[in-house]
Amino acid sequence: MDEHMTTSEQSTPQTVLPGEHLERLRAQLTGRLVLPRDPDWDDARQAWQLLSDQHPAAVVLAADEKDVIATVVTARKLGLSVAPQGTGHAGTTIASWRDTILLRTSALRDIEIDPETERVRVGAGAVWPDVVAAAAQHGLAAVTGMATSVGVAGFSLGGGLGWLARSHGLGANSIRSLDVVDAHGRALHVDAARHADLFWAARGGIAPVVVTAIELQLYPIEKLWAGGLMWPLERAAEVVHAWGEWIGTVPETVTSLVRVLRYPPIPDIPEFLRGRSFVAVEAAVQADADAAGRLLAPLRSLAPEMDSMRPMSPAELGSVHGDPPQPSPAVGSSVLLSEISAASLDALLGAALDPSATSLVSIELRHLGGMLSPGRADGGAVSSLDGAGLVFAVGMVPFPEARDAVTAAAAAVARRLASFASPRRVKNFTETPVAAEELYGDATERLRAVAAAWDPERIIRLGHPLD
Ligand SMILES: Cc1cc2nc3c(=O)[nH]c(=O)nc-3n(C[C@H](O)[C@H](O)[C@H](O)COP(=O)(O)OP(=O)(O)OC[C@H]3O[C@@H](n4cnc5c(N)ncnc54)[C@H](O)[C@@H]3O)c2cc1C
Question: Can you give the pTM of this predicted structure?
Answer without folding.
Answer: 0.95
